[in-house]
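Ticket #4471: structure export looks truncated?
Reporter: QA, pipeline team
Priority: medium

Steps to reproduce: submit the single chain below to the structure queue and open the exported record.
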Amino acid sequence: MAGRLGDLVGRRWVLLAAVCVSAVGLVVTLPDVLALVLVGMLLFTGGFFAAHSVASGWVGALATEHRAEASSLYLCAYYLGSSLAATGAGLAFGWGGWTATVAYIGALLLAAIWLSLLMLRTPEVRRADAPV
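Actual output as written to the record:
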């Protein structure tokens, strides 16, 4: 669904929106109310995987050759980054509980939002054989 929306309005906008949805979901998990935590988890997870699907599809769209290698490099970076982020989140939780974990993940999401905003300022790149 995010990939199709990216084709309609642009991957950059969908990526930015998906990361923002994750950030909203993260904040919604802060109150100690089970219903809000569940809604926050739904928003966070939905935004995260929407961003991931747009980014992984983007790699294949931009690669002019060696698409499989480009895709595998993306996945390697994705899993390595996820592992490092999860390790940091575990350390944050041990140090300051859920509030510290939210602050840590929030900082990562702010960096992702900043990078997404920078991408909006760069010209769109298309493969030569991509449909118009």
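Status: closed, not a bug. The export was complete when the record was re-opened. Leaving a note from the reviewer for reference: The mean pLDDT is 89.
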